Structure formats: structure tokens, C-alpha cells
Here is the input.
Amino acid sequence: MQQIFRQLTCVQFHTCISMCKSKSMVFVYVSPIFRNCRISLFQLRKLCSSLTMAQSQPQLFVKSLETDDHIYMSFMYKPDQLDTYRAFSLQRKKAETLHATLGRISANISKAVEKGMKRKKKTSGASNSISCCTELTIKLFANANGPLRNMTEIDENTLNIDAWKDGYILSIGDVVFNVQVNTPTVKTLKLPTNIMAGFPLYPRCEAEFSHFLDFKFFWFLQEKSSKSKTKPLFNDDSQSNVGISLSGKTKELLDMCYSLGILNESWRLIDCGWCTLPSNSAIGYNLALACIPINEERTGMPLVAESPNPVSAGPGLCPFEERHLSTIKMTTPGYFRVVSYNILADLYANSDFTREHLFPYCPAYALDIDYRKQLFLKEIMGYNADVICLQEVDKKVFEFDLLPCLKQCKFEGVFSSKSGQVAEGEALFFRKSKFRFVEQKDIFLSEQIELNPSHTSILEQIASDEQLKEKLLSRTTVLQVVILESTETPGQRLVVANTHLYFHPEAALIRRLQVQVALTHLESVMQKQKQQAGEVSIIFCGDFNSNPRSGACHLLLNGHISDDFQEYPPIEKEIKVGGIAFGHSFHLASACGIPRYTNYVQGFSETLDYIFMDKESLQVDQVIPHPSHEDVTLHTALPSVVFPSDHIAQVCDLSWKNQL
Here is the structure.
């Protein structure tokens, strides 16, 4: 696992050095400089905002969207009367004149100088009067080569919507700014409330005009005491302590950092990259993250976030880490590993009802998504799977946690939300070195009953029971279907289905009908795929909310079911319908067999989760053992401080029987 996360977090220094040739990527110079430096968080923020000043020309960032009546401006500027740079941000109407906007910039600078001088007088105890800010000359020019006197000044009666163009020049006194419009922007940068040593740590990051995974990230640790002197940053031979030769630009940046007074005190660079893995030595310390928004051409305004709480110790060895001993190695050609896992949506775990009635034995902090996601991400990535099917996935967890983390591990993923207003659904990921995406064929099961003529008999038979009809057709269940093709054997395709059936204990008939609708759709998908590919196989994963003796499972495993099938355990008021042909043409088997249980909560345990496979074209090569019953019940039931969900992941290795 340590090696996996090291691959996630390390930015190769030779890449950074080669990038130094670009003026717009100055921030990458920070990495060798700060490996052993200590700075305060306040100074760290100043550093991140000031790094743009180290470029050949200061930058003024402008955000202008067609759907917004305002423009947003930000820049760093150091008035002559002050010792340090100040950050300035403005929001102005597009219909406002340039004259009014430049006047506001001047007024804001004057206010900053006045506040700074008052603070300086209070600190020094000087009795002399505060010197007034000299009136600044501020002008905007159209870009051109050569000195300002050769540039065309923009008429101050011009409206903001027309005045601020990419590459224009703003002069404030004798300081000249390069106007950058709609550069990569960090909208949100937050660290989780719970950070544990040995578990993946990454920010909640939202971006504009680029994807946040393209940004540069630098992790800092706050040392508890700064009594000892800062270690020398560099040896006499101009080598950094991590062995990187310094370029002239880097030395200029170092001089600037010293002049700003930011190379001291308590913050030390410990890692770089979007995701890091805090070590045990970080326990008890706060962390900070500096983000530089960047794309291939331009750099935006940096941002810093500090951890709300210090790094804490983890829960100790988690049972899934013992399971990882069976998945240390990646699968070899011809084999692929499958995971099916209901990760327990935050939508259902984080409520007073859940804490008080469903999982009262689980500490509240262990139900919090910031805690649980650290566990299930480490668990999922440690299986080294090739196909991952997840249920109860919050849309935001997919977008900000699962997808970016697994992308770093060379996965691609898709999310299929349930219908209606439900903010959770199914997620499917595949390893790009094993498979390529062909197409996606999702359906909502309730809609399909009404749209597909094949299900006319179902509508006819339930028409007389309004309560049953309403329950069946109001379900939000989605069937996620993704067709993949092997990269090792082109022409060999795999249809991957993933679902989460209706949960109610007395809804066995509804689940049976849902299975029938799903299988009918999958037969259609398979038929079309067989016309396009050499060989097509299928796996059907999910939380079926059905025990091995249920009608739904009987239908899946045996291909048909009679009208008088008796559910087990018996349902007191079981609804029966006749005249529906329950059946399919697949030959399916449960790849993980029939374990003792896959869902274990206080007062209930049952096998509900399966990986069904086409046994005519696929075979099982390994089933990853379940945690021991002693591990499952050590903290009463699931979830717990070492189990992030109330379900147990199903994991197995499969291979094609017939290699093309």
C-alpha cells in the first residue's frame, strides 16, 4: 500500500526542473526550496499569493463569465509605504466604466496603506503621524511590444465588459501587471475534518477553466516548536538538501522569499501531489496544503487550506488489510479481478435516526464520511482490482473522492444516479491497462417496465393491484450497464452490470420482477454485442437485497422460476401473481459462492451481495476470503471503527475460458 500511495503523491523532480523553463510555472520551484524550511501559515499564504510576483511580470487575474453580470479581479501589490505584498480582490459590474473601476482599485490600495501604517505605528509605538498614501496613477493599456509610452491607453469611458482583455497591461504607478482573463482558478480548497496516519489524504477541490487534477499541490506540516534554528536550506555547493541543482530562477525566488520574511517559523514541506499518505510521525500535527492552479499554458492565483484538526492515529490494523495479503499482486494477462461493494451512502449513514436506531453501537465519528471514506478508499485500492462495482455511492463522493483517487491509480469510472431526486447511485470503475470503454447502456427498471413491450404481461398482471403497481413503478432503481473490451485480447468483450435492488423485507416479488426486467435488458445488450465482437461475456454485480434461497436468486441461478415459488423465509402477506414468464437464457453462477453473510448489523445478518458470472465463458480462479466472524463482531457489528460499511466487499479473480 505504501508504494501505491507513493505513486499517487510523488511529483518527479526532473519533471519540475524541466518545467522551470516556462515563466508561468514558477510555483514548481517551491518543492526543492522548502524541503527543510519552516514558515508560518500566515506567511505560507503570503508566499502562495506572492509567487506570481516572481515571474517576469506581475499578474492581474480577471474572471468574466457570460452568465454573470460582474467581473472578478484579484492581484498582489506592495505599496511603497508597506513592507509586504497585499492581496486585492474586487467585484465590479460589467456595465460600470473603466474610470470607476480604476478609482475603486486606487481607493482599496489607499485603505490598505492606511491600515498597514496604523498597524505599524501600534507595533512600533512611534508617535509620528501616519503618512498619507501618495495618489497613484492607474491606467489600462492594450498590449503591445515595447515600453508603456508606445502602448494604446484604453479610454476610461469604456465599459468593463469591453475593457478587460487577455494580455492587456495595467499600470499602478511604476508597477506593470499582465492581465490574465479566465485563468485556471481554485474555487474551493478544503481538507477533511478527520485525518488519520496511514490513510489517504486529499483535498476537496473545485476548479474553473481547468481540472483540479492538473493543478500542483504542496503539503506542509506545522511543527509544534520553532525554538531550534532553521536548518540550512542549501549547502555551499548550491545543491538543495534533496539533491536538486538550483537554477538561476530558483535562486531569484529564494532571494524573494527571504526578502518577504517567509523562510522561518513552523511550517515544513513534506510532500507534493494531490493525494498524500500522512505517516505516524505526523500524528498530533496540523497540515496545510498549497494549491497552484495551472494548465498547459497559464497559471492562476494560488490558494492555501489548513487542516481543521491535527493528524490522529488510525484505528489500528483493519480486517480488510489482511484481505489485501491475497491481492498484493496485480492480475496477469487473461485474468481480471472484480470487486462488488455497497459502501453505505453518507445519505443514509449520517443522520440522527441512523446513529440512534440503525447503528447505535458505532461511534458517531466512525459514521462520518470524512472518517469512513479514508477506510473504504484504502480498502478498495488495496484490492488491486481491474473492475470495481460500487453501490450506494453519493454523487459528491464519486465526483470529489472516488473518481479522482482512482484516476490516480489509472482507472476510469462512470456514475449512474438513481432516478428522481435520490443523490446516490451506482459507480463502476475499470483499469485502463486491462480494458477500454465501448459503450454504456443504463436503464431505470421501473421506466423499462412501461417502455419495453416485452414487459406487457407484467403491467397486465399488476394492473388489478394498485398498491403493488404503485410500489413497483415508483422505485428509483437503476441498472448500470457498461460494455468493456479487453486491451490484452481485442475483440473479447465484457458486459458489466451493476445494481442495487429494492430493500424492503416484504418486497420479494418486486425484487423478482426487477431481476426479470434487468435480465431481459441484458439479453438484448448481449445479442447486439455478439454481432460486433469475437466473444462476449457477462458479470452481474450488486446488492440484490435477496438471500440465496429467494426467488430473485433462484431466477438468476436457475434461469426460470414457477408461479408458485415459495419465498424463504416465508413472507406473511406475500403477494403472488400469475401469467408472468420468469426466465432468461444466461447460465449464471455466483463467483464468490454463498458466504455465511455479506451484510451484518445488530439483529440481522444475511448474504445479499453477489458477483454473478457467465459460467460458460468465465471461470473463477480465486475468491478473496471474508474477514473472520471474530473480526466482524469485535465491535458488535458493521459498520465500525475498522469497517466503513455494513456490507462486506465481494472480491474474486476471473478468467476467460476461451482465449481468442
Q: What stands out?
A: The chain has 19 helices and 28 strands.
